[in-house]
Amino acid sequence: MSDPIAFIDLGAQQARIRDKVDVAIAKVLDHGMYINGPEILELEAQLGTFSGSEHVIGCASGTDALGLVLMARGLRPGDAVFVPAFTFIATGEAVAWLGATPVFVDVDPKTFNMDPRHLEASIATAREQGLKPACVIAVDLFGQPADYPALKDICDAEGLFLLADAAQSYGGALADKRVGSLGDAATTSFFPAKPLGCYGDGGAIFTDDADMADHIRSLRNHGAGADRYDNVRIGMNGRLDTIQAAILLEKLAIFEEELVSRQRIAERYNATLEDVATVPFVGNAAKSAWAQYTLRVADRDAVRARCQDAGIPTQVYYPIPLHKQTAYKHYPTGPGGLPVCDALAADVLSLPMHPYLDEATQDRIIESVRTAIAG
What we know:
By secondary structure, the protein is α/β, with parallel strands linked by helices. The chain folds into 2 domains: 243 residues, 3-Layer(aba) Sandwich (Aspartate Aminotransferase, domain 2); 120 residues, Aspartate Aminotransferase, domain 1, CATH 3.90.1150.10. The chain contains 12 helices and 12 strands. The strands form 3 sheets. The chain has a 7-stranded mixed β-sheet, sandwiched between helices. It has a 3-stranded antiparallel β-sheet with strand order 7-6-10, with no helix packed on it. The protein has a two-stranded antiparallel ribbon with strand order 11-12. Helix 6 links the parallel strand 4 and strand 5. Helix 3 packs parallel to helix 4 and helix 9 runs parallel beside helix 12. The protein is globular and about 65 Å long.
């Protein structure tokens, strides 16, 4: 019987760097600065160098990262924030936390990222409904950056803040700019399954705006002012733990190599599956971090069941778009509904993807997927 296949093999990566991670954790245990230890500042500096961002603020999760940026922007009830509906719930959730209104926008059928044309129409519709357009959150789905030049033009014309939700794309790039330096600010997640993940929850915020960075650092720590007991604004407890920062520093040291491996694995999938399924499209100017490798297939659920019978793990990201989820159905959508989001939810299928997927295992996956699609 063949060995089980991991959808994301975190164990293989851990085996590679376990000795270094053990030393890094032991160092934190020795100095005892479990909150705001020196590893936090070192990680923020290295992330800034990697992404080309002037200011990086580590925080407790990718969701908190979104919320902190929106809090710093002073988001309030009556404000409209434009969010793609084909994504994880955190993007819309952070907007709703603050009493603002998420307006769900359709996505491009090739990239799965926010459709700029539908965004323009959605902004006009929101104004007609009495909302005040305030912000666009562009999600870099499955690792590929959104169309930031087009989105930025719209935001500049409309006076909107552009926030890059890079929870899945850290390590990716668009033209000569790396993720983290796209948009007016960016956020990412270090959830364990992400391309750069820790061993718990974690996230980061990227900006070139020094005043915003200072504001977010205060918000991250209960709204603290110069005196630790004088809280000058309403904040939250959104700090990144020192142990997670120490782990991320060791993972960041091998991250470039892992991105090369992810690209090679994705290219192999494309070459062997493009004749039986719709394989991922990555624009010429874009570099994906390949958080997921996602096909579009006919009769998706049957294909998935056949893969499961063959011992091939698959996932569906995402079976229910945000605008159809119970807690979010009452929020507005752009005009004409969201037909692309609805179609994607019915036919996307993600295959195992991680930097340690060897060719023999990938061949087994490819053969089983081709057989499953053939029926």
